[in-house]
Amino acid sequence: xxxxxxxxxxxxxxxxxxxxxxxxxxxxxxxxxxxxxxxxxxxxxxxxxxxxxxxxxxxxxxxxxxxxxxxxxxxxxxxxxxxxxxxxxxxxxxxxxxxxxxxxxxxxxxxxxxxxxxxxxxxxxxxxxxxxxxxxxxxxxxxxxxxxxxxxxxxxxxxxxxxxxxxxxxxxxxxxxxxxxxxxxxxxxxxxxxxxxxxxxxxxxxxxxxxxxxxxxxxxx
Length: 221
Fold this sequence. Notes:
This protein is of the alpha/beta class. The protein is built from six helices and six strands, in the order ββαβαβααβαβα. Strands 1-3-2-4-5-6 form a six-stranded mixed beta sheet. The protein starts with 23 loop residues before the first strand and ends with a helix. The protein is globular and about 45 Å long. Strand 5, helix 5 and strand 6 (163-164) form a beta-alpha-beta unit. Helix 2 packs parallel to helix 4 (110-126). It has helices at residues 46-49, 74-83, 99-103, 110-126, 143-158, 183-219, and strands at 24-26, 36-41, 63-68, 92-96, 131-135, 163-164.
């Protein structure tokens, strides 16, 4: 099967006890006039990261960097964030882990919730001032995911964080197996990601413009 997770090599750092397959990094420079989005996820973004089969559209409102942790759970995300150098010039950090926590032998439980909270705390520590976003756990067609997403929603609300719905649906052509999106599914995922993040970016830009306008008016008083 084509895709990054076919490369069985050891993790060099970070999430060293996940699937035994190498962490992949896509380090894109921040483009002029575009905010920089860093996406942290598991092997569902393998072909966004390496090999780069699916890319953002030319009209994407953001420049995209990504960290792919094949087999990675929430605890591996914590290790990655705290154990590696932060990406430069990040405006948004989207945390999209949890699939392997739900699918793991222990399933979703108290420890998963604790690691979700730790991941958010680690992200805020490593990326101060960056807007943190959460993504619902995939695949949502899995009934076990519903309870996990209710927990993620509650955790996000406690910290005033958005929980984004990036689900591509249950179309069989979008999935290569029970957990992993196909390249077609990943292309759909990218379309949804662009649309959802674009609304957040535009809302942020409108807020800043309004703030600058108010400050301008105040300076004239």
